[in-house]
Amino acid sequence: MRPEDAPYIGDAIMQGLLQIMQRCAGKECGGVMEDALMAVSTLIEAGLCNHEEAQVCSAAIGVLVDLCRALEVNLMPHLDEFITLLIQIVQSDKVEKLVKPAVLSCFGDVALAIGPNFSRYYDYATKILNMAIATAKTDEKKNKA
């Protein structure tokens, strides 16, 4: 296998890892779930850090949303890093504006997935939503001028 093979096999590998995690969710699977989650989280983190490639970043957000739905509270050990990266996306000037609403939606999916545990991220989410509102108001004023 060579690095240039990655685009051809990446989707199949990701689907396989997600299936492993879905089958292990709520069951005692030893280290299988943790190993699969570590592999997927590394790929998600790389995608979330790729601010210049809107499609890659959006795809990583989509996979994170899928993980939230599949794993719910079991995703908690990895959420601190993901939340930090989502905040960086919203604050970055390099990210296309079309990606940022997906981040806001992702915060909602995280909240639904982890329930009351989301209180840990509430202040961050509120700050980001307020930034989005301020940006929308600024853009609205520019469009009227």
From TrEMBL:
It holds the Pfam family TPR_IMB1. Residues 47-140 form the Importin subunit beta-1/Transportin-1-like TPR repeats domain. Coiled coil: none annotated. The keyword Repeat applies. The keyword Lipid biosynthesis does not apply. InterPro entries: ARM-like, ARM-type_fold, IMB1_TNPO1-like_TPR. Keywords: Repeat. This is Importin subunit beta-1. It comes from Gongylonema pulchrum.
